[in-house]
From TrEMBL:
<protein>
    <submittedName>
        <fullName>Type 2 lantipeptide synthetase LanM family protein</fullName>
    </submittedName>
</protein>
<keyword id="KW-0862">Zinc</keyword>
<dbReference type="InterPro" id="IPR025410">
    <property type="entry name" value="Lant_dehyd"/>
</dbReference>
<feature type="binding site">
    <location>
        <position position="875"/>
    </location>
    <ligand>
        <name>Zn(2+)</name>
    </ligand>
</feature>
<dbReference type="GO" id="GO:0031179">
    <property type="term" value="P:peptide modification"/>
</dbReference>
<keyword id="KW-0479">Metal-binding</keyword>
<dbReference type="Pfam" id="PF05147">
    <property type="entry name" value="LANC_like"/>
</dbReference>
<dbReference type="InterPro" id="IPR017146">
    <property type="entry name" value="Lanti_2_LanM"/>
</dbReference>
<feature type="region of interest" description="Disordered">
    <location>
        <begin position="948"/>
        <end position="981"/>
    </location>
</feature>
<feature type="binding site">
    <location>
        <position position="874"/>
    </location>
    <ligand>
        <name>Zn(2+)</name>
    </ligand>
</feature>
<dbReference type="InterPro" id="IPR007822">
    <property type="entry name" value="LANC-like"/>
</dbReference>
<dbReference type="GO" id="GO:0046872">
    <property type="term" value="F:metal ion binding"/>
</dbReference>
<feature type="binding site">
    <location>
        <position position="829"/>
    </location>
    <ligand>
        <name>Zn(2+)</name>
    </ligand>
</feature>
<feature type="domain" description="Lantibiotic biosynthesis protein dehydration">
    <location>
        <begin position="93"/>
        <end position="472"/>
    </location>
</feature>
<dbReference type="GO" id="GO:0005975">
    <property type="term" value="P:carbohydrate metabolic process"/>
</dbReference>
<dbReference type="Pfam" id="PF13575">
    <property type="entry name" value="DUF4135"/>
</dbReference>
<dbReference type="InterPro" id="IPR012341">
    <property type="entry name" value="6hp_glycosidase-like_sf"/>
</dbReference>
Amino acid sequence: MLDAVVGPARSRLAVELRSVPGLSTADGESLLASATLSLRDVGWRRVSRVLLLELHAARLAGRLTAADEAGRWAEWVETVHRPDFWETLTEHYPPLLTRLRTVIDHRRAAALRLARRFARDRAMLSALAGHELGALQGIRFGAGDSHCGGETVAALHCESGKMLYKPRSLAVDAVLGRVLPALLPASAAPHPIRVPRVLERSDRDGTYGWCDYVAHRYCADQGELATFYRNLGHWLAVMRLLGGSDLHAENVIAAGPVPVVVDCETLFTPHFPTRPSGYGAATDLAADLLNDSVMRTGLLPGRGGGLGFRGIDPSAAGALPGQQATVSVPVIVDEGTDRARVGSADLPPPPTVNHPSPEPELGRHWPQVVAGFAELTEHLHRLDQRGELAPRLAEFADCPTRVVLRDTIVYSELGRMLWHPSSLHRPDRAAERAADLLARHADRRPGAPSDRAVIEAEVAALQEGDVPIFTTTPGRGELTGPGGTRCGEPLDLVDDAVRRWRALDPATDQRVVQAALVGAYLNDGWLPPPQRLPVTGPRLDDLDRQRREQAAAIMRDLVAYAITGPDETATWVAPVLNATGWSVQPLPADLYGGVAGVAVLLAAYQREVAAGRAEEVAGAAELLPATLATLRAAEAAHAADLADARERGVAVRPEACGGYIGLGSRIWSWLLLWQLGAVPGDQALAHATALAAELPAAVAADESHDLLLGAAGSIVPLLRLAEASGEARWQETAVQIGHRLAAHAEPANEGHGGLRWLTPLFPAGVGGLSHGSTGIGWALARLAVATAEPSFAGLAEEAFDFESSLYDPALGGWRDLRSPEPTTAAAWCHGAVGIGIAAADLRHRAQPERWREVLAQAAAVAWPGGVGWNHTLCHGDFGAWELFEHAWAAKVGSTLPAREEVLAALLGSLAEHGAVSGLARDVFAPGLLPGQGGIVYQLLRMHPEAELPSVSLPDPGPPPAGPLPSRQDDPATIPGSGSTG
């Protein structure tokens, strides 16, 4: 379709290739065919939206007269083939044709340079490969982003092998290849980490090089797998030393037991201090700690939260199959008809070759990663102490390197915007908009350039189809950007990297490596391989002393790992579950694993200390106001961000609205903190009310529906807010959410009864409390009680019917639909514990015998199935303990041991193994549900006189002093709820 604009460039390239010395006719034809495909693809990606818009204009104007839609498409294609058509586009899109010709000409010139270099270096390439390459069969252009006038990495396919062409200096690759063997211990043999062999070259057009092709191969046996993961730890240690970054999945190839880093241009990345975020100095300090830790390498798992890669783990160690969010990509809908248009499709990321097995068992092999990192880090320190390290690293001083100041996705989205029909119609306004967005990005991203001249050069590069690039040499430090612009300060980056490496705390880095495993998994459903925590000698004597000692020991860790700021804020770095999956980060504001949950714990602990039921821990009392200050700062900064976005007319993705992660969680956190005496009632209500006002937009965008992240989780917090404030509008908002849940309910598939809710994470629906029908049903049942609305009661019954249909007597529990194989789960998040806890609450409200029976079933499943794996509230012993307490109270615990025996077993397990969380077993995580914080909370509640509310359901209970005076405000309306309030 683009022959009218691609054709002249193709014809010129054909003539030029015939004049390249040493290039055979066959090789020239192969190169021309590959280049032609590349030119068409590059052009189409730039102008497809314009052409489809013009297609619809032609159809509506009656200029397409064929009898059917396919015929009208053929007419359109014929129109586009005419050169004069493209000239007419300049009236509405003034820069289009000039820009398009520039992009295509840049790619043509880059293909010609490759051809000349290939012909000139051919003999050397065979030597590099170790055999004769044979005739050129094809080239895959665009194996990386386009930089500096259409230059891209290209993969050459020859008769007897493959070779990579890189239009940049490969000096850093060559030096790393020479230095690596000197950095590794003797134990690294016979399969040490390596980089591909390279050939450094230059000509009058600049430096370039060739890389030997690395073939992907799975490991042959368990021995090779163990070596691969130990080697991954070695790469972490090396890149930590060398300041490596941007080592994502596409930059590593698994060659049997050796992970080969195939692109190492981002060594000695400058450290850019975190800019004040407004979320508190402690949060900024925590972010800076992570930015200067082993996480910056990009090798460790972590979830993207930004536009275009939300929920994606791009890391070299992660990017696990089946554990990636889908990505929305543009596609042509109804292609081949006159109704063709740009749509979107949610697709998984393309497969990568960074894994050593088809189904990587990362959890099983992660100890080898940690051990490899620790082993090589220790060895490198010995080399440094002997004075052998610095001379080796000095070789890098003059090697050109790249510095990634903005994520490629930022440039990709801005590039798409600049080539949008509306931007091409008003190019000056679009360029100004792009520059403004880049300037605002610089306010948030450490190191991103804010200088106007640099930003204008970035925009210019994007307009010509390139991704802007910044380069330096480690000995110089100052950066060269697009168009020859300069930014950054002169600095010896080699010396700075070594200085920072020497100053690091190896134990901190090792904890980060251990914790980072969780980022490879998409949700809270993954657990480590079954490893029971045996208790060799539980003690029945003095259980309360054991309880107090274990709680105090964990609280001392909480104090020790706290990061405090000069503004008297506090936070922690830990594995955190949020709307995009797991990641290691400063704690967010939520209750599940965030600051709100830690504040609840600290308030509860101080209350129990005051009552004489818990040991005083030095520093714990001071952490409560500091943690509350962090929570307040986070909410104030978020509110300011929202106000700024509204003022600029920028759409902002709403927060999650769940009862444990999102707005709902923070509403009931403030009410619970009021109940615990940590904040006055007027402050709690002010915060909760401000959060509740954001719910309509959040609920309208919600796709989770569930208790944890979704709209169901905000129902009971809203009911409690209505009760505490006397404002009926919050109950009406809860009613609207109920109507929306009704609208999204789906009949169960064959073999199951009732209703289910389909989500992106669980497209077939799922049971259980946190994500499934039990949790949604519980919220609807509580809404039915509060409103006396039969439709909600009926909807709740349908949800419970679906859960009931999952109970399988042969399996002895409720089917876990996350697994394709028949299996059950017995945790709070998924399975018997959560189902039983919901039943315990509902039996006090309606149908007591029915729910008593469910409670009995759940207790029978949870002992011993739900204990002995870890200690958390979410998926471990101390969540199960709460279920057992309900069973004993309801006198349905006949299948359970005596209460004292269970307590002795749980306390003995803590004493013998330490507090073990589920996902990052050996890492301290203060979170209330997934971490050690919830273990302490449950230990406090174990005292028979403790009156701490449960956190196993998103219900803070009634307000301490009854409702405040009523204010009858109009409720906000939730789109799609079927109610206007």
